Amino acid sequence: MLKNPYIRTIIASNALLNLGIWVRNFAILLYVTDLTQNDPVYVSLISVAEFAPIFLFAIIGGTFADRWRPKRTMISCDLLSAASIFIVLLALWYGSWQVLLLSTFFSAILSQFSQPSAMKLLKQQVEPEQLQGVMALFQSLMALFMVIGPVIGTFIYQHFGIFVSLSITGILFLISALVLTRIPQDERELEIDDHPTHFIQELKEGIRYVWNNRTLRTLGGTFTVIGLAVGLIQPLMIFVAIENLGQNKEFLQWPLMANGAAMLIGGGMIMGVAKKVQPQMLLVTGLLVSTLATFGVGWSHSIVLTMTLQVFSGLFYPCIHIGINTMMMKNAEAAFIGRVGGALSPLFSGMMVVGMSIGGTLKRESSLDTVYTVSAGLFLVGAMLLFPLLRDRQSVQAVVADDSE
Questions:
Q1: What is the pLDDT of residues 46-67, one digit of tens each?
Q2: Percentage of the chain surpassing pLDDT 70?
Q3: Which of 37, 194, 204, 404 sits most deeply, having the most CB atoms within 10 A of its CB?
């Protein structure tokens, strides 16, 4: 797969972006917890700033990604992300810490334009039988940074502070843009169709395309449920370390590392069986394991048990990521990749933002184990919604959109 210049270049860019994002996110998390004495509401706001743009801009970014040249779009987004980091650094020097949320918010907006462009390139330049393997490769890369990201982010922040951390992030974004210049020049057919259409028309076609496809429609229901499940607990892992395990907030890097190392192993294992297992089976398996692991982590007060559950969850988490992305890639035509992702992502991210917005308050009004129990139940519901697709011997094929008005 790495002989393909598109895969090789996008992987390199993705690695740089992942490292920059981990350094930025951990620095902001630790900085804000220092300033607010571990206030769960403020910690939740960090995640809201990171994921709210997915809900607000995914369908818009996906539609434009289908219209614009992918290479140019990806490079522009990286350059703008880097510029936003340096502007925020200047503002932070004179202002309050809340300006950090703007950096995260703006960078997340740009991701809604660049990520669909990368998927569009892969859809057009990778053989269909290799798609699940490519998704597994991306999952393994993400897992690698789950291992090293927390350590690097914590080390840089503790030794050099917030300003150096954000500066490194901006530099990594710039290098990513430079790497992307090595992608072969966008082909003419990647531009807008010879029949110019209006943005709103294309957006409606994308939504109708998803609705007419049984697999994508079912996936949308699952996205909605598991988005809420993830959102409820996403900002609260730091309280598992502090309250359940009796450790300081820096301890958070260790369960995250254990989870990431297991994800790396799990991603490698799935790469070996990617062609033999239906993506919907991978997704259901991952969600069922997440149900058990989430419930266990919420109630565990043992470091050994929590770390074990994090490893168990990590081994099967790639099933979720690879299953979702493969189902979308296989069930959408290249011309609709951006809009399919743009239509489905807000279902996940929108509910995730809802979960993150109420997770901190729910935890404060009830308990940490209650929030984790609710999240586990939602993962189970998400898996049950997919059960009808398990009877399909292969994924439902893409349905051509109805162009009529």
A1: 777 777 776 677 667 777 777 7
A2: 83
A3: 204
Asked if residue 402 is part of any domain, the answer here is no
Sequence-ordered list of residues with C-beta below 8 angstroms from that of 69, at least 6 positions apart, any chain: 186, 190, 191
Residue 190 is predicted with a pLDDT of: 43
Tell me how crowded residue 182 is: count the other CB atoms within 10 A of its CB.
12
Nearest CA-CA partner of 122 in 264, 4, 202: 4
Contact yes or no for 59/343 (Cβ under 8 A): yes
* Residue 405 in domain: no
Number of domains in the chain: 1
The model's pTM is: 0.65
Alpha carbon separation from 108 to 46, 140, 171, 201, 238 (Å, rounded): 12, 22, 17, 25, 22
Q: Please indicate, yes or no, if residue 78 is contained in any of the structural domains.
A: yes
- Name which residue leads in pLDDT, 198 or 7: 7
Which domain CATH number covers 171? 1.20.1250.20
Cα distance between residue 289 and residue 287, in whole Å: 5
Range of the structural domain that residue 340 is part of:
5-184+199-391
Sign of CA pseudo-dihedral 355, 294, 154, 175: negative
Cα separation of 359 and 364, whole Å?
9
DSSP letter assigned to residue 128: G
Q: Per-residue pLDDT tens for 332-391?
A: 776 676 677 767 777 777 787 788 778 778 888 888 889 999 999 999 999 998 888 877
What does the alpha-carbon distance between residue 13 and residue 366 come to, in Å, rounded to a whole number? 42
Residue 243 lies in a domain: yes
Residue 197 has pLDDT above 60, yes or no: no
Q: What share of the chain is helix, strand, coil (3-state, %, to 5)?
A: 85, 0, 15
Q: Alpha helix locations (H) across 234-299?
A: 237-239, 253-273, 279-299
